[in-house]
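Work Package 3 (structural annotation) set out to generate three-dimensional models for the target panel prioritized at the project kickoff. During this period the team completed the workflow that converts sequence records into discrete structure tokens, so that structures can be stored uniformly alongside our sequence database. As a representative example, we reproduce one entry of 306 residues exactly as it appears in the project archive.
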Amino acid sequence: MRERWGSFSVKDHISANNLASDVLMYDRLIFPVPPNEEERNRWKNNNWKPDLQSKRLEVLGKRAIKIKWDKYRQEKFTNQMDGVLAIAEDSNTIIPGSDAYQMTRIILSQDDNIQAYRGSSKAIVAAAYQSINNLRKSYILKEHEKDDSALSICIRNRLVMPVFTSDEEKNFELALELSADNDFANKRRALYTWQEKIANENINLVDALDELEDLIQQYNENVKKAEKNVINKFFVTVVGATVLAPTITTLLNSPTAPLSDLFSTFGPSGLITLAAFLKFDMKPVIDHKEANAVAMFHDVEQTFLQ
């Protein structure tokens, strides 16, 4: 079973509640960190709270991977943002300047240094978003676009998240402790192994959903053993699929129906559907030659397509 890593933005460490969900979903968490005092002061001026980040990273220990947010990565960020902001403005989907930090997740997920950390593990690195609104400030995700090169599988899981205490900081630490439990980690990775299987193998959707429902139930029961007080959250993974081509050819012959009606199956906790996943220049994000998770997000809301 391959590990799933999440790459985060310069301010994703701030919410302890969101981090409590993140540590339960990712084997390792990748954060940009200020490389020097000058950059650290810039973070303070932007209210990105670098001192709090240092505290979070200490608690996370070896689960955290620190990548210096240096001049080289900032230049990559600036180059990408210049193009994205211009295209978004042309399409009347202007990204506020204060939200530009969202792009740091993508820069980190593609960073060359991550390979050194991965070693021979072949871990999958996904851009990790803490809400659907944050994801939409970096990508376009919609159900009506029928460009076959842009289509991806969206997998939604309704999972329970433990609420150990009303103290957010303590809740984060207890979630981190639960996430290190071997039995829990195996249940989480089983969900991701299922995702890889559906993306790479030509299997029956109904059978696949039955298996997903069983895996979700096992995961949720494991969480409830640790803590009876829980809340529901929806976790969505956008993943490429090497087996989509013949299916898409059939779907494109029905030009009026939404893709979610043509290729979609759902149960009490799981949903499998097709959607277009695009950059703001309307170019595909997914590489169908290798079926991997590209982005993940969690939200309290069930609806995620526009």
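Residues 87-96 have pLDDT under 50 and may be disordered.
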